[in-house]
Amino acid sequence: MSDTDPREIVLKGIGASPGICIGKAYLVDKEGVDVVKKYFVPKENLLNEKNRFKTAVKKARDNLHKVIEDTPEELRDHANILKTHVALLRDKMLYGKIIEIIEKEEVNAEWALRKVSADLQATFRKMADTYFRERATDIGQVSDLIMQNLMGTDHENIKDIDKRVILVAEDLSPAETSQIQLEKIMGFVTDRGGVTSHTGIIARTLEIPALLGIDRATSIIRNDDLIIVDGSTGELIIHPSEQTLVRFVKRRIEYEAHKAKIARGNHLPAKTSDGAVIHIMGNIELPEEVVSVKNYGGDGIGLYRTEFQYLSRSDFPSEDELSDKYRDVIEVMAPNPVTIRTLDINGDKAISRHPDSLEPNPALGLRGIRYCLKKPDVFRIQLRAILRAAAGFDNVRILFPMVSGEEEILEAKVILNEVADSLEKEGFNLSRNIKIGVMIEVPSAVIMADTISKEVDFLSIGTNDLIQYTLAIDRGNKEVAHLYQPLHPAIIRMLKRVSDAARENDVKVFMCGQMAGDPVYLPILLGLGIRELSMSPLGIPTIKHVIRQLKFEDTERFAESVLRQTTAEAIMKLLKDTYGDILFQKNNIQATDQQPQ
Ligand code: PEP
Ligand code: MG
User: Fold this and answer.
1) Residues with beta carbon < 5 A to ion ligand 2?
2) Which CATH superfamily is domain 9-30+156-261 in?
3) Which residues pair with 100 in a beta bridge?
4) 255, CA 20 to 30 Å: which among 25, 306, 425, 539?
């Protein structure tokens, strides 16, 4: 490197879509929308001002409809995301409030838009859950769209870029991302966004490397700068040195070869070398993710986190709306199972839209089944929607979250039966084959697993919360993240207890927490008798690939020695000594699930 060569800069962001790309940066222009001036509008012109705003919204809506129409085939299922943006355009919290501010404060539309959008984004950003915080991004994107129309500026049309480049933008909306031409755009980097943002989901579907949430990307990177994006590790390298370049070219080749090898086995069953079949399922948050589960070779949906449909809106979804969405998923997956978890809102997934209504200690508050039992009307609507959607199918399972003991299950089942009775009276021909299960994610449920097993058809272990509550580690708190230990002997013993209780009572035991999607834990989970694992779709191929290299009989013996260990460190050592070459391959794609962060 000569003295005049710019220095290599390494930044870390959120790896939203795995893979490595190396190429020239292309900054997507976003003219002027950040410079908004406030001015007062004379009373007699207020009607005009409101109309100007309404026209800008209409134009934004027309733009989005056009993008939806032009959406390429492989992204068809994501058109729903764009439809959410269309709906947001008319949301009372945004649209209604802006009209109100123009009127009351007698200000220009741009200023009202900027103010309302900023307040709303701030409210969402204060929420405990990543997913909710990222809904602020949706609001920002929709606001930008209206702003461009108000100010007569334009976002560069991504469709027209005709060089092979890596996009660098402050933000890319799902509408823009869905216009990416794969033969031109190698990957992208944005200042904003996170792993569960819709833009991230689209990048994963397109299978292009993407890094989001790199605060200063657009201020540091210049057009034509050579950059490296590693969407697997979250690294961004600007002006890489020759050594770095060589290292990443090698890594990219290895990664692609590994991915291709694993992809060849995507649709083969996950069978151990001695013939034990493990069912590998996908966790989804949005109905459109079903496609990824199928593409990556999932055997069904092990966890459908239904709470996400209650977001980006000011009202609760209707029974019909929910039922339609559930049916889409059930139909696409049939005959494979679809496990619909009833609302797990509040706690780390606050539904309330105002920070002052947040609970002081949400993780221990009115969440999961407690919320539903306290608000039976909300619960009933969801259960009716599930039962209606399941009619005519026999692949549906209902899963109750955050159960701490028997009473909650009995109460939930009473409501479920009442709902089924009333639907039958209304003439619905309901499915008779719906399986009922509970999440085992509260320590008391582990202790009571034998009793609980008598009331349900299956148990699904949610390790994200189980670890949080057992080890007293806030799953979202970075300060204690190092203490969040899936291999803590207490956790391993709990898994054993749940698995034994399930077997003795002849019910199935599954796992759908993050632990299920990390290959490192596989020998222990298999050895403890957990035969169904559910994870973020992206992790499915690697998990299947690793399972094929394990011998079930050995894992049983291995689990016994794991249970004799007294520290997480000792268990990890045992894993490395026994299975190191299989479990710790550096290109293994881990299923980064929602949580823990
Ligand atoms: C869990 O707690 O492990 C789980 C799967 O549920 P969630 O991450 O949605 O709380
Ligand atoms: Mg949970």
Assistant:
1) 441, 462, 465
2) Phosphohistidine domain (3.50.30.10)
3) none
4) 25
Could you name the CATH architecture of 43-151? Orthogonal Bundle (1.10)
CATH 3.20.20.60 matches 265-583: yes
> Where do the structural domains in the chain lie, given as residue ranges?
9-30+156-261, 43-151, 265-583
CA-based nearest residue to 270, from 259, 256, 281: 281
For residue 381, how far is the Cα from the chain centroid? 24
Determine if ligand 1 sits within 6 Å of the CB of residue 463: yes
- Residue 105, judged by CB atoms within 10 A of its CB (0-12, 13-18, 19+), counts as middle
Contact criterion met (CB below 8 Å) for 365 and 359: yes
Total-model pTM: 0.73
* pLDDT tens figures, 372-397: 999 999 999 999 999 999 999 999 99
How many of the other CB atoms lie within 10 Å of CB of 68?
19
Across 269-287, b (16+ Cβ under 10 Å) vs e yields ebebeeebebbbbbbbbbb
pLDDT classification of 313: cutoffs 50, 70, 90: low
Task: Please report, in angstroms and rounded to a whole number, the separation of the first and last CA atoms in the chain.
Answer: 38
Tokens at residue 406, please? 């028997």
Please indicate whether residue 190, judged by its CB atom, sits closer than 6 Å to ligand 1: no
Tokens representing 24? 């020239």
Residues in the chain: 597
Q: How far apart are CA 274 and CA 292, in angstroms?
A: 29
